[in-house]
Amino acid sequence: MENNAPFWNDSVGYIIYPETFCDGNGDGVGDIPGIVSKLDYLKELGVNLLWICPLFASPMDDNGYDVSDYYKINPLYGTEEDFKKLLEEAHKRGLRIVVDFVLNHTSDEHPWFQKALSDPSSPERGYYFFRKGVRQGDQLLPPNNWKGFFSTSVWENVEGTDDFYMHIFSKKMPDVDWSNPELRQRYYEIARHYLDMGVDGFRLDALAHLAKDLSFASSSLPADENGLVYDTSRFSNRPEVLDYLLEFKKEVLAPKHAFSIGEVGGGVSPEEALRYCDRQSGPINMVFNFDTAWCNGAYGSIDKNDEEIFTDVLELKRNFMRWYDACHEKADMPLYWCNHDHPRVLSQYGSTKYRNESAKALATILLFFYGTPFIYNGDEIGMSNAEYAKPEDFFRDVSTKNEVLSLRARGYSDAQITHYLCRTSRANARTPMQWNHEENAGFGKKIAVNALNENYKEGVNVLDQMKDPWSIINFFQYAILKRREPEINDIVLHGKLHILDFNHPDVLAYMHEGKENLVVIASLRPYETYFSFYHMIRDVVLHNYGDVLLKDHVFTLRPFECFLLKV
Ligand code: BGC
C-alpha cells in the first residue's frame, strides 16, 4: 500500500455502546472506567479504531443521543478526567478514538432550547425550528403532516401557546437549524474543543438530516391512520447538507486533520453519498449506510410468519456491490453488519443453532470485503437478540416504545408485538456485554440497564471463548490479524473485486484479483448447499469446519460454512 494511505485504510473498527459495555464503578451502568479496563482486551482482539456512542451529558431519553451539555461528560459515564484518561490510555496502545457527535438535534433540556422556550426573542430561538400550528375550530393542528423516525408527528406543541417545535426523533430531541450561521459556529467550537483534547475524529450522527425543506409544506404522499406522512425526503439528504459539511471541513476538520464518518441511513444512493465522501472533493472521509443491514425482510414484518423471514442473499450481494461499484475508485467505505440501531446480526442473518459457524461466516464476509470493517461490541462472541418476553422489556429504547404504542393503537396484541420486537428492536443489540460466565456476565456488580441475555452461561462470553481454540472470538482475532497483514490489506483495498456465481441464492462469494487472488466463500443457510469452484486453491487461510468437502470442482457447504482462500 502507498505510504501516504490514510490510517483508516489499515484499520479495523470496533463500535462501543457505553451504557452496556462494562461497568467500572458498580452502579449498574457501563462507563468510561469500564471501557478503559477493556483496552488491553481490544488491543489483543486486534481492532484499532474505536467508535464510542455518545458520552456527553444527557437525560438519556435516547440513551445519550439527546445531549444536554456538549462540554460535559455524562456523569453516568464518568468525568472529564476519565475521558482524558481514556484518550491517553487508548493512544498508548495505538487505538484511535472516534466520538459520536450529535449535531442534528439537542436534548430539550439543553440550555439553548431552554432559553429558546423562555425567551422567544433570544438568538437561541433561531437555533431551532419553531412554527405556528393551524387553528381549526377549537382544534390546534401541527404546522404540517410530517411523520418522524420514532413513529410520531415531527411537531410538538409548546404548552400554552400556538407554537410547535420540530423533532424528527423523540419529542425530547428538538432539531437544530443548520441554516443559522451562528448555530453552526457553536457546533464548530464544540468540535474544536474535543479535537484539542485529542480525539481522533467524529462519527457524525444523523448527518443526512441537517437540512430540511424550509417551506414546511405538507407532503402529498399517502398518509397513515393518523393523517401523518413518512416522507423522509423533507428532511434527508437535501442539497444544503453538502454546503454545511464543506464549511465544517474548512473551518474545523481540515485544519485539525480530523477523521470523520457520517451516518446517512437508508435513504441515500451511493452516488449521492459520494458527494459527501469523494476522496478529492468530499467534505468527510466515509459514510455509513444501512443497505446491507436489513436484507432479511424483518423490518416492518409484524404480519409475517417466521418462515417468511430469511436472508435475501441476492439482495445482500446487490447492495454490497452497488456501494462497491460506486465507491471503490473514488471513496473509502465503512463496512458493518450491525450497530446499536439494529438487532444482532447473528439473529438476523446467522443462526443461534449454528452460532459458532454463522458468526464466523459473517465475520469473514465483513472483514475481507472492500472497505474499513467495523465490528459491533459482542459480535466477536456471537451475541444474539435479547429474547425478552413482553414489550415493556424493550422500553429503554424510546423508538421501540413509541413503535409499541403505535402498534397497540393499530390493534396488535402484545404477543404479536413482542414476537416482532424480538426480530427488529434495536434494544436487542443493547444488552450487557458478556465478559464471563459469572454473576451478571462480568458486566458489573449489578445491572441497571437492559436485562442480560442468559446465554452467557452457555459459552457466549469472552472468557470461556478465549480458552477454546475453535471459539468465535479466536476466529475473529486470527481473521483480524490476517485482514491487517499488509499484503492482504493491499489486495482487499486495491484488487479488483467481483462476486462469484452472483445468482447463487444461498452463497455469498467474492474474489479480489491482485498479486494473489483472494476468495471468500460463505454459505448463509442453515442447510447443506453446493458451490462450483474451478480455481486452483493455493492456501486455505480461514475455514470454520474441520475438513473440506470438495469433489469434481464442487464444494459441499455445510450450514454457514465459510472459507478465505488464496487461489
Ligand atoms: C443514532 C441513533 C439515534 C438517532 C438520533 C442515529 O443515527 O445512531 O441511535 O437514535 O441517530 O440521534
How would you characterize the overall build of this protein?
- It is a single chain.
- The protein has 567 residues and is an alpha/beta fold.
- It folds into 4 domains: 357 residues, TIM Barrel; 56 residues, Oligo-1,6-glucosidase, Domain 2 (Oligo-1,6-glucosidase, domain 2, Alpha-Beta Complex); 34 residues, no CATH class; 73 residues, Sandwich (Immunoglobulin-like).
- Helix content is 27%, strand content 17%.
- The chain is built from 15 helices and 23 strands.
- The strands form 6 sheets. Strands 13-12-11-5-2-1-15-14 form an 8-stranded parallel beta sheet, covered by helices on one side. The chain has a 5-stranded antiparallel beta sheet with strand order 16-17-18-23-20. It has a 3-stranded antiparallel beta sheet with strand order 6-10-9, with no helix packed on it.
- Strand 11, helix 6 and strand 12 form a beta-alpha-beta unit.
- It is globular.
- Bound molecules: beta-D-glucopyranose.
- Beta-D-glucopyranose (BGC) binds next to loops.
Short description:
This protein has 567 residues and is α/β, with parallel strands linked by helices. It has 15 helices and 23 strands.
Question: What structural keywords apply?
Answer:
single chain, 567 residues, alpha/beta, TIM Barrel, Oligo-1,6-glucosidase, domain 2, 4 domains, 5-stranded antiparallel β-sheet, 15 helices, 17% strand, globular
